[in-house]
Automatic annotation (TrEMBL):
This is Transcriptional regulator. Residues 12-85 form the Transcription regulator PadR N-terminal domain. SUPFAM superfamilies: Winged helix' DNA-binding domain. The lineage of its organism: Bacteria, Bacillati, Actinomycetota, Actinomycetes, Micrococcales. PANTHER family: PADR-FAMILY TRANSCRIPTIONAL REGULATOR.
Length: 117
């Protein structure tokens, strides 16, 4: 089985699951989708994009020049969708297990307790 994706990779794949994006859009969508919990730096983003591309989970999908700057676009691959889906399933199973343990010990769930994911 493939290794668990990092939090950064999870959010990048999540952003790309809704379609083709360039770097700045990925940064924005990642922050929005994580409700501000994830704020990637540009260097972190592009290092992660390089790793995801090397792993075959995303691929470049064109480039354009806007206001004198190159804008590189990326899309998620079928393998990326499979990996993201597996990660979501793992997170859901983990959440169910944690909820069950909390219920056994009669701990109340604290909504939005600052979870990293």
């Amino acid at each position: 089985m493939a290794s668990v994706v990092t939090q950064t990779s999870f959010w990048i794949l999540t952003a790309l699951a809704s379609g083709r994006r360039h770097g700045y859009e990925i940064l924005q969508e990642t922050a929005d989708a994580s409700q501000g919990r994830v704020s990637l730096k540009v260097a972190t983003l592009y290092a992660a994009l390089d790793r995801l591309e090397a792993d075959g989970l995303i691929r470049p999908d064109g480039e354009e020049i806007v206001a004198g700057r190159a804008r590189r676009y990326f899309v998620i691959t079928d393998d990326g969708v499979t990996r993201l889906s597996a990660e979501v399933e793992l997170m859901e199973r983990s959440t169910r297990a944690a909820r069950a343990q909390l219920a056994i010990h009669k701990f109340a769930l604290v909504p939005d307790a600052g979870a990293a994911w």
